[in-house]
Amino acid sequence: LALAVLAHDLLLAFQRAQSAAARETQARLLARDMELQLLRLQIDPHFLFNSLNSISALTHFDPAGARAMAIDLAQFFRQTLDLAGRERIRLQDELGLVQHYLAIERQRLGDKLATAVIAANDALPALLPPLTLQPLVENALKHGLRPRDDGGLLQLEALVRDGWLHVAVRKPVPAASLT
After folding, report:
1. CA atoms within 13 A on the CB side of 105
2. Contact 112, 76 (CB under 8 A)
3. Which of 63, 79, 90, 156 is a good FRET partner for 98, with 20 to 30 A between their CA atoms?
4. Nearest 10 degrees: CA dihedral of 24, 32, 77, 56?
5. How is residue 126 annotated by DSSP?
6. Alpha-helical regions (H) of the chain
7. Among 122, 127, 142, which residue's Cα sits nearest to residue 94?
8. How far is CA 56 from CA 7, 47, 66, 105, 145, in A?
9. Among 26-30, 57-61, 108-112, 125-129, which range has the highest average pLDDT?
10. What is the rounded CA–CA span in Å between residue 27 and residue 19?
């Protein structure tokens, strides 16, 4: 009888430990998702205001460019709203958002911005949180390309290795940081 009570207590302790570990994992995931949502809330207005200012400036000397930029901006936000309610989206959909973002930035930066998006076919259906890549690309442009007079190549690569999605955003490294 004592052995049965001991086994029962051990089973209950084990179940409590598993439950606590599951709650901790859930809390970490929730915290991470909240951080991503806060980041999105910070990025969207900044990006929108910069884009609207660029469209306004383009209307004077390049009306066709302003129109193209307005269309890309509308497409970007339309897709963002369509995908916003989802926890995860395919890399292929995320790359579509990034392409609209880059089209807007090409209008702003002109010949200073060259881009290359390289995604392996097996990486395209991989799932990730919406708007994961756009902040990385925006940061690479802001800190890597815009400060350079000659601009450069922004390269985004995605591949699957050992069952994991690997994404890299590469930008030119300023000469000052090489010394």
Report:
1. 24
2. no
3. 63
4. 160
5. -
6. 2-61, 63-84, 91-109, 133-140
7. 127
8. 73, 14, 7, 14, 22
9. 125-129
10. 12
- Of 82, 89, 105, 169, whose CA–CA distance to 133 is shortest? 169
Q: What is the number of other CB atoms lying within 10 angstroms of the CB of residue 90?
A: 16
Q: What token pair was written down for 97?
A: 């958002």
Q: Find the angle CA(35)-CA(75)-CA(66) to the nearest 5 degrees.
A: 115
Contact 90, 125 (CB under 8 A): yes
Decide: helix, strand or coil at residue 151.
Answer: coil
Three-state SS at 172:
coil
Confidence of residue 42 (pLDDT cuts 50, 70, 90): low
Tens digit of pLDDT for each residue in 100-118? Answer: 888 888 887 888 888 999 9
Distances (CA, A) of 73 to 47, 78, 79, 149: 10, 8, 10, 25
